[in-house]
Design brief:
Length: 218
């Protein structure tokens, strides 16, 4: 199953790249596109097809040190596994795609395309990703899902999962400080303080209060 949102576009070579990797890597659970953000179509003029390259992991959790995120429009998922996990949550939140990929976290096979660019994502003011209420709700949902044991791997893979969850939470918490939702940002900071400490994310732990203070002074 390949997803294409209304503010995304595929290139002429995109589906061929997906098909080649699916066949070559024996139908991985998750295949992720190479993303390019753009504001207007003129920015796509220089995008060209190039030799296909990809990073391959035993599963998505195994990629936790690489910082890969898999948005809905980037993801190509094995249909039977997607359905077995119940599909996307119907809650009105952002990060429902990140939740889905985490629920597939230990499913065999994760392939990240590194070349060529296979997905264009258009930045625009009406994007759902800019809805701060939905983004905060989504971040809290990921935290709650991890705490209730909804993601696979047990204690053995807890560090991998929490590295991914906190990576998804940090930009939302920081964005709250730049809006009128500073209190919501502090709640996310507090909710994940222990996880960030265990992971040694000192830059975020120290930088968040400093950014909050600077914004308050302004």
């Amino acid at each position: 199953m390949a997803f294409l949102d209304t503010d995304d576009l595929w290139f002429p070579w995109t589906l061929a790249c997906f098909a080649e990797l699916i066949q070559h890597h024996e139908r991985p659970a998750i295949l992720s596109a190479r993303l390019l953000e753009f504001a207007n179509e003129a920015e796509l003029a220089g995008v060209q097809e190039s030799p296909l390259e990809a990073k391959v992991f035993s599963d998505y959790l195994a990629s936790h040190l690489r910082g890969y995120f898999v948005g809905a429009g980037m993801s190509v998922l094995r249909r039977e596994m997607f359905l077995a996990k119940g599909g996307y949550t119907d809650r009105p939140i952002n990060a429902e795609d990140h939740d889905m990929v985490l629920r597939l976290g230990d499913a065999p096979g994760f392939v990240q395309i590194t070349a060529p660019v296979t997905l264009g994502w258009r930045r625009h003011p009406g994007s759902a990703t800019l809805d701060m209420v939905r983004s905060v709700a989504g971040a809290h949902y990921l935290i709650a899902q991890e705490r209730r044991g909804s993601y696979p791997g047990g204690n053995q893979r807890r560090r991998e999962r929490r590295a991914i969850v906190t990576r998804d939470v940090r930009p939302v918490a920081l964005a709250c400080l730049s809006s009128s939702a500073a209190a919501a940002g502090w709640r996310l900071y507090g909710s994940t303080f222990g996880w960030h400490t265990a992971l040694g994310c000192w830059k975020f732990l120290a930088g968040f209060p400093m950014k909050a203070l600077l914004n308050k002074i302004k």
